[in-house]
Amino acid sequence: MANNKYGYRPLRRSGIADLPLHGGRVPKWLANRMTALGTAIAEQVILNYGQSEFLTRLSDPFWFQSYGAVMGMDWHSSGITTSVLGALKRGLNPRFSDLGLMVCGGRGRHSIRTPDELRAFSMKTGLDGDTLARTSRLTARVDNNAIADGFQLYLHSFVVTRSGEWAVVQQGMNTQNRLARRYHWHSATVRDFVSDPHTAIVGEPQGEIRNLVDARSERARDALLVIAKSPFEKVLGDARKLSMPMHHDVRATDVDLERLGAVLAVAHEKDLRDFASLLLVEGLGPRTLQSLALIAEVVHGAPSRFSDPARFSFAHGGKDGHPFPVPLKVYDDSLAILRRSLEAARLGHTEKLEGFRRLDQLTRNVEANRQPFADFDTAVAHERAISASIGGRTVLDDKPQDKQSAPTSQLNLYLKTSRRF
Q1: Is the pTM of this model over 0.90?
Q2: Contacts of 415 (CB under 8 A, 6+ apart)
Q3: Which of 101, 100, 106, 130 is nearest to 118 (CA)?
Q4: Burial classification of residue 407, based on how many CB atoms lie within 10 Å of its CB (0-12 exposed, 13-18 middle, 19 or more buried)
Q5: CA-CA distances (angstroms) from residue 135 to 7, 66, 145, 214, 323?
Q6: Tens of pLDDT along 380-415?
Q7: Please, which contacts does 96-99 make with residues 24 or more away whose CB atoms are closer than 8 Å?
Q8: d(Cα 316, Cα 70) in Å, to the nearest integer?
Q9: C-alpha distances in angstroms, 314 versus 76, 259, 325?
Q10: Which of 140, 145, 384, 386 is the most buried (most CB within 10 A)?
Q11: Tens digit of each residue's pLDDT (9 = 90 or more) over 65-86
C-alpha cells in the first residue's frame, strides 16, 4: 500500500468499545490458561487465515470482546482489555519466529516504553523503527488529545507483524462516570491519521464531544492549523461501536438465544453430539463440546456473529462467577484438544484443524435449520449445578495465600500516564 503525503502507512481507526470501569485482579490459575488459550486461538486464526486477518479481528471491538469472554475473563468489564493483551504478549512474543507477531506496550509504565520496544523490534526485522514509534505516538495522541471525549489513556498496545502491518488497541478512563473506552486501529484500514482514522469508537453517550478528527470538523481544524502549524487534516469515520451494559451478571437480553441454542443443541442432543465429537475426538463429552463449539466460532465466525459477546462466556464462564464459575476441567480439556490439533497441523496433518471449521459450520446449520432457542435460566442453572464436578472456580474462592499483592489501581495508572501521551 502506498504511503500518504506524510509518509504514514494507510490506516484507519477500526472500532471503539465502552466498558464499565472495574477493579480486581486476574488470578494466576486463570492468567496462565488465558495465555495458553489466547495463543492457541491466535495460532488457529493465523494458520487458517493469515497474520493480517488476526490483526483485522483484534481491531474489531466485538470480536475482541468475544475473544476475552471465551477465555473466561469477565465478559464486559474494563479488565478484559488488559488481561487479553497481557495474555497475548506473554504467549505470542516467544513464538515470534513461527507466528510472526509481536506485542509491544501495555498498561501503565509499559505503555510509555512502546516506542523503544518498537525500535528494538525493528532492528531485528529491518523495519523503520522510527516510523513505527511515530505511528504509536500519533494513535495515542489522536485518542488522548484530538478527541476530547473525557477519556484519558492509561493502556496502549501495539501489535505488529514482521512485514510492518500493525494494530493498536488502547484504552482510556473517565473517572467521573466510571467508564473505560477502548480504541482500535488497524494499519490496513487507516487512510489518514487526522481524517476519520477509526473503524469504530464504542461508548455510552456522554454529552457533546469535541472530535477534531471528525471529517465534519475540517474548518475547526483549519483554524487550529494556522495556530499550531501542524499537519492536521481530518479524522474519524464509519466505526464499529460496542457499548457494554453496567450490570455485572449475564442476562438473557445480553445473548442471542438462537445462536446459544444451536451451541447447546450440538453439545447436548445425542444425535448431534455424537456427530460433532467425531469431528475432533470420538466420544467427546458434551460440556467440552460446548466450549469447543464457541472456540470454533471465535476462530471461523463471520464478523456479524459477534454482536453478543456475552454468549461466549458460556464456553468457560467468568472469573467473578458470571454467568457461572470457570470450569477448570473443561478449560483444560478444551486446551488439550486445541493443542493436539495444532501440533498435528505443524506435522502436516490438518484433519483435526479442519474439524473446528466443520464444527462451526455444523452449529450454524443447526441454527438455520432447527431454529433452536435456548432456555437461558435453565442453561445457567444447569451450569451452576454441575460446577463443582467440573472444577468450577472463581476469584472469590482463592485462599488468602493464593492471592497476589494488591494490584495497582487503574486510577493510579491513569494519574501516572495520562500526561505523557
Answers
A1: no
A2: none
A3: 130
A4: middle
A5: 10, 27, 15, 19, 39
A6: 999 999 999 999 999 988 765 554 434 444 434 333
A7: 96/162, 99/42, 99/43, 99/46, 99/51
A8: 6
A9: 13, 12, 10
A10: 140
A11: 999 999 999 898 889 999 999 9
